[in-house]
Amino acid sequence: MKLLSLCVAGTALLLSACSTTTPDIIDPRTFRAQGNEPGWHIDLQNGHANISLDYGDIRYSSSAVQKPIGSTQTRYTGQGPNGDWTLTVIKQECSDTMSDEEYEYTSILNTEGRTLRGCGKYLPQP
């Protein structure tokens, strides 16, 4: 009986570890966080980030480290040319202020001494 209880508990733990509510950096799909005024986006894929700021005037790439924060938030961090960057992704509906497109995630990017707010989603697979 003890063995059965242990197996059931282990299975539940394994299943809960597999369910993610925020983007996983090792996911083969690209997750894009983006915002407006000024236009910016960050693409995360396989432990790597491509960042574009100020409508593409500033661009850089870096490795990205993922850290879950509770069950609805994930923080990604990396090193840019002018210091560290941090992206917080929250499992919370978000509406783009310019296109009125609805997104599944809210995103907050801290970089270059500023806080940029926007939305996020997985990009379609090619």
Protein model, in words:
There is one protein chain. The chain is mainly beta. Helix content is 13%, strand content 51%. It is built from one helix and eleven strands, in the order αβββββββββββ. The strands form two sheets. It has a nine-stranded antiparallel sheet, with no helix packed on it. The chain has a two-stranded antiparallel ribbon with strand order 8-9. The longest helix has 17 residues. It is globular. The N terminus is likely disordered.
Secondary-structure blueprint:
Blueprint: H1 2-18, E1 31-35, E2 40-45, E3 48-53, E4 58-63, E5 65-69, E6 73-80, E7 83-90, E8 94-95, E9 102-103, E10 105-111, E11 114-122
Antiparallel strand pairs: 1-2, 1-11, 2-3, 3-4, 5-6, 6-7, 7-10, 8-9, 10-11
> What summary fits the major beta sheet?
9 strands, antiparallel
User: Strand sequence of the main sheet, in spatial order?
Assistant: 4-3-2-1-11-10-7-6-5
Name the helicity range: 10-25%
What's the total count of β strands? 11
Number of helices: 1
Average pLDDT:
84
Beta-strand fraction estimate: over 45%
Query: Could you spell the SSE succession in H and E letters?
Result: HEEEEEEEEEEE
List the uncertain runs.
Answer: 1-19
Radius of gyration: 17 Å
Terminal-residue CA separation:
50 Å
Q: Structural class, from helix and strand content?
A: mainly beta
